[in-house]
């Protein structure tokens, strides 16, 4: 029998060790209450094997043909696990196909809309409200900058129509930039927190268990600053890359214009490659933070290791999902966009600012709900393929 590849890319190496130590059990985000684990933290009985005892393709799941009850040994003899259905919840307990991931994401919303929709909406709505407050000083800053630009442009044009159009835009442009940047920052920071709540609900729905809104707040809330810190870390990495790229391009332009144009194209290509690589490698960190109960850096290392060796598969699924959601969000926000265009003609800055904030919220909300469910299922699928999470899920489902 071929020994499956380890998460670190080696052959036959142990599964990744919970950041540093023991591989996490299913449900470790509620310490002391893993499947078959007493509240005192004593080792689980043999009826609930830990990770590494039954990896995919080895003892446990790989011994029985597809469709056989998990835990049934060859020949019909009872195995280590009680018999449970192959699909106790929203997904089958085996490595998932693309269609099963998408179906599971839709089923997750239907199974527990109170958390998947309610938790996400509350978190992002609060973030948008904070962004609206943050946009007030930003709008003032942009208004001052626009006023200076307007004075320069008015001095250079003698056409009264152009001057009137420029004056009309002075009430819209600062507000658009202020609200767009303010809500964009807060929504970006809150998105990992919202996706963490979705990941918790999806992980429970996988064994047909519905977590309540209060339980979601109790289990995700204490780790909110880890999730916000993840958003800050991602934003800081992008900012540093852009700062270095811009500095290099400016230096190349100082040497030669043609050299600078070439550098700008290379910087743009490098930025796209970096974004794809970095966000895929950090894709599973938020579920790891919520579901494994580790420290921040241990969860970062854990999520980073889980994506090793599966980059292209995750990138393809992520890009396809993002394109689908972008298309759907354009359809959803089209009426608001048309309204914004009319408000711009009527020069009503307050309506435009509210419309920009609402459009941003709806777009991020639609993407976070489904994309968060897909990411959570990718996390579960990766661990089923590498660490035998299907065995732990079967044990958790049997213990319900």
What is the strand and helix layout of this fold?
Elements: H1 98-111, H2 113-156, H3 160-169, H4 173-205, H5 213-220, H6 224-255, H7 257-281, H8 285-292, H9 296-306, H10 311-346, H11 349-387, H12 389-398
Structure description:
Helix content is 68%, strand content 0%. The chain has 400 residues and is mainly alpha-helical. The chain has one domain. Helix 8 (285-292) crosses helix 9 (296-306). The longest helix is centred in the middle third of the chain and has 44 residues, at 113-156. It is globular, with a radius of gyration of 25 Å. It starts with 97 loop residues before the first helix and ends with a helix.
What overall geometry do the principal axes of the alpha carbons give?
globular
Q: Compute the gyration radius: what is it?
A: 25 Å
Please give the largest β-sheet: none
- Cα(first) to Cα(last) distance is 34 Å
Number of strands: 0
The total count of helices amounts to: 12
Biased composition (Low complexity): 23-72
Transmembrane segments: 115-143, 176-203, 224-253, 259-280, 315-338, 350-380
Keywords: Membrane, Transmembrane, Transmembrane helix
Organism: Myceligenerans pegani
């Amino acid at each position: 029998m071929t020994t499956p590849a380890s998460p670190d890319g080696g052959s036959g190496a142990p599964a990744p060790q919970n950041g540093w130590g023991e591989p996490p059990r299913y449900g470790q985000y509620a310490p002391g209450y893993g499947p078959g684990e007493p509240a005192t933290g004593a080792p689980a009985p043999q009826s609930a094997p830990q990770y590494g005892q039954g990896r995919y393709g080895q003892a446990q799941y790989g011994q029985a043909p597809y469709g056989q009850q998990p835990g049934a040994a060859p020949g019909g003899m009872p195995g280590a696990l009680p018999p449970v259905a192959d699909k106790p919840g929203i997904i089958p307990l085996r490595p998932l196909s693309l269609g099963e991931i998408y179906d599971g994401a839709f089923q997750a919303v239907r199974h527990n809309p109170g958390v998947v929709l309610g938790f996400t909406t509350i978190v992002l709505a609060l973030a948008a409200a904070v962004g609206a407050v943050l946009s007030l000083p930003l709008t003032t800053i942009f208004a001052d900058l626009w006023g200076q630009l307007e004075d320069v442009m008015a001095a250079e044009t003698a056409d009264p129509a152009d001057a009137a159009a420029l004056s009309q835009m002075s009430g819209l442009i600062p507000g658009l930039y202020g609200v767009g940047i303010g809500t964009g920052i807060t929504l970006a920071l809150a998105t990992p927190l919202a996706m963490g709540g979705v990941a918790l609900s999806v992980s429970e729905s996988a064994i047909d268990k519905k977590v309540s809104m209060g339980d979601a707040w109790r289990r995700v809330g204490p780790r909110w600053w880890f999730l916000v810190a993840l958003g800050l870390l991602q934003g800081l990495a992008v900012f540093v890359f852009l700062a270095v790229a811009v500095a290099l391009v400016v230096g190349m332009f100082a040497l030669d214009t043609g050299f600078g144009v070439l550098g700008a194209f290379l910087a743009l290509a490098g930025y796209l490659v970096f974004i794809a690589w970095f966000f895929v490698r950090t894709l599973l960190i938020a579920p790891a933070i919520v579901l494994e109960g580790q420290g921040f850096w241990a969860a970062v290392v854990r999520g980073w290791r889980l994506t090793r060796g599966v980059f292209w598969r995750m990138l393809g699924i992520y890009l396809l999902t993002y394109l689908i959601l972008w298309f759907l969000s354009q359809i959803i926000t089209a009426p608001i966009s048309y309204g914004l265009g009319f408000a711009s003609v009527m020069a009503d800055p307050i309506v435009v600012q509210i419309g920009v904030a609402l459009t941003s919220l709806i777009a991020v909300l639609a993407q976070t709900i489904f994309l968060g469910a897909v990411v959570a299922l990718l996390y579960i699928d990766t661990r089923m393929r590498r660490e035998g999470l299907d065995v732990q899920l079967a044990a958790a489902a049997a213990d319900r």
